[in-house]
Write a structure and sequence with these properties.
Bound molecules: 5-O-phosphono-beta-D-ribofuranose
Radius of gyration: 16 Å
CATH topology: Rossmann fold
Number of domains: 1
Strand content: 15-25%
Order of helices and strands: EHEHEHEHEHH
Number of helices: 6
Shape: globular
Low-confidence stretches: none
Amino acid sequence: MNSNPLIGIIMGSDSDWTIMQAAADFLKEQNIPYEATIVSAHRTPHRMMEYATSAHLRGIKVIIAGAGGAAHLPGMVASISPLPIIGVPVKSSNSIDGWDSILSILQMPNGVPVATVALNAAKNAAILALQILATSDVSLQQKVISYKEKLTDEVMEKVKRFS
Ligand code: RP5
């Protein structure tokens, strides 16, 4: 958690944190200020409204929203907030097999997009959020480039072990 956060990580329940923590870890690693909190579309609908209407006014640039089961949080926040919303489907205790969470987040109506990442892929959500910020910031773009180089280097190390 930081002052002047640029990225908001929200989740439907504290039980989502085991998955969503990967997004926070990546942002911490990259030195990107973020905030993380619980906002439930079903259990705290007024808090959700408040968060979605005010996040951009507080300087948040991208929202990462994770939820499981009947995962309405990302879509409902996207219906209110002008910010780009990245949805993380969580395979939660109330999810049948993960598909319910995926489809609840993915199948948004025209006009209200949610950029949906893979099941439990909170780290990818954080990378995408960084890439969105990086479109208007060269130093952040360098972080993305360095991260991609690191991915390549890791694979090339493995390639060496196979030869
Ligand atoms: C969803 O229900 C939450 O996002 C979570 O994935 C799931 C289960 O919540 P808990 O019952 O563990 O609080 O709304």
